[in-house]
Amino acid sequence: MKKLPASKYLKYLKYLKYLIWLGPMLMIAGVSAGVVSGGWTAVPIALILVGLAMIGVGLIAMGRVDMGGQPSVWNQRSLETGANALVTTLAVLAILGLINFLGAKYAWRVDLTENQQFTLSPQTQEVVRNLQEPVKVWVFAKQQNPQDQALLENYRRAGNKFSFEYVDPQTELGLAKQFEVKNFGDVVLELQPNNKRKQFVQTVSDRDRLSEAKLTNGLEQILSNRRANIYFLQGHGERPLEAGQPGAMSQAVKLLGEKNLVAKPLALAESKEFPQDAAAVIIAGPQKPLLDGEVQALKNYLQRGGHLLLMVDPTNTDPKLDAFLKDWGITLDKRVAIDGSGGGKLINLGPADAIVTRYGDHPITKELQGNLSFFSLARPVQSTAVKDIKETPLLFTSDNSWAESNLQTQPLEFNPPADLQGPLVLGIALEKQTAPKSRLVVIGNSTFATDGLFDQVVNGDVFLNSVRWLEQPEQSTLSIRPKDTKNRRINLTAQQANLSSLLALIFLPLLGFGTAAYIWWRRR
């Protein structure tokens, strides 16, 4: 083999010393790849080893060639230089590795949207954080939607027992069959390990994205073994439970089922005894008077620690509940709540649609503050203090409302003393403080919970939260409010748009250049 002259050897060798700077870059890339991916595969390990090798070659080259490219030997100065470079490199690697590790383990995000559009509700965070067993979400879709994936990532960050995976049902036929997938986009919850329980959540598509409310409801349902029975009193013209009938409450019944609450009809006149498994009883819009025996049965139920939701509309028929409610200090006003602000016209509401945006400080309504609900043909609910009964008003109308005594007069106007000036109370929650404790919620309207109105604004939340507070005396209710993105666009005229373009493309650059030229001329 032909031996290179010493001069050429030094010529090539002096360039190798720069490898000491390329080596740390490769090592940083390897460490970053390993931390971000969460696994030390062949690629990050190879990058780290190659980086170390380059650092070694660079140190050797620095020992052989001095800074001027002349021959050198390993003396004290070169040793110090090499050691300092090595220590600096290792320190930089350690700092960068620590930053990557902390960044991956303790992610910090700030949601600057007005209504926290990209932040999980406090209730959802509590559910995920308190998971006792691993839960996995399977999304059977061909493509991963960024919006759905971001929501699932938020869930995963909220609790270490939550995970998710996207699966193509066409390639994973066995897995799709195991989870009984019927459509592309099916989302299924699995309680692990060993596939303990499965729960269908929803089917996502381009139009129907993954819902936080549905996913959290699914989590609640798959984690709970409890199925409570909610009885709806029937036989007096109450709201029907089946879909397709006028004034039905099928949407409310369906949502109760998603919460592990089983809706059952209750005909007291046909029953031998009051159902012992009733977690709560609902009386929704009776049109005929209850029998004395039925009223006494309900009274006995509450005295035993039962829970009742009473929704009574203003009708020409007295449901014969006045004496029953008097024991709780409640009086149902016969007048109709009228909204005099005129704001309802913007959303196709009339004056008899009482608008509520102010709510009481109570578990039923504490998460609804500032949201809108409305109650068509509602009657005010009045209360007086009763010993050992805690009362909390829930629903308040605006200052521009009143209770109208005569709907036949047009136009509707406030006429004292026959009419009552607002704000009015449309709903009250009551709790007996002595044992056996019982709860009662009285709302002067049932229309808000019927099909078509139930899913409007937070009408459904008022109903669901009332039922949850009644049937779970020791637990707080779960209310996930819809997060609507508000339109904050600025609509510019053609003249304003042209002016903005001129400012951005001409005036601002000229101002910058002119300022720079002026400073240069002053310093010249």
Termini separation comes to: 63 Å
CATH superfamily of the largest domain: Class I glutamine amidotransferase (GATase) domain
Overall pLDDT metric? 83
Which structural class best describes the helix and strand composition? alpha/beta
Q: Look at the structure and give the CATH class of the largest domain.
A: Alpha Beta
Q: How large is the share of residues in beta strands?
A: 15-25%
Low-pLDDT stretches:
none
Level of helix content? 25-40%
How many helices? The count is 13
Rg over alpha carbons? 35 Å
Q: How does the major sheet shape up? A: 9 strands, mixed
Give the tally of structural domains: 3
Q: What would your notes on this structure say?
A:
By secondary structure, the chain is an alpha/beta fold. It folds into three domains: 9-105; 122-222, Glutaredoxin (3-Layer(aba) Sandwich), CATH 3.40.30; 227-471, Class I glutamine amidotransferase (GATase) domain (Rossmann fold). Helix content is 36%, strand content 19%. It is built from 13 helices and 18 strands. It has helices at 6-16, 19-37, 42-64, 76-105, 122-129, 146-158, 173-178, 212-223, 250-258, 292-303, 322-326, 459-471, 494-523, and strands at 135-140, 162-167, 186-191, 197-203, 228-233, 261-266, 278-284, 307-311, 330-332, 336-339, 353-359, 373-376, 381-383, 389-397, 401-404, 420-421, 425-432, 439-443. The strands form four sheets. It has a nine-stranded mixed sheet, sandwiched between helices. A four-stranded mixed sheet has the order 2-1-3-4, covered by helices on one side. Helix 1 crosses helix 3 and helix 3 runs antiparallel to helix 4 (76-105). The protein starts with 5 loop residues before the first helix and ends with a helix. 32% of the residues are buried. The model has no long low-confidence stretch (mean pLDDT 83).
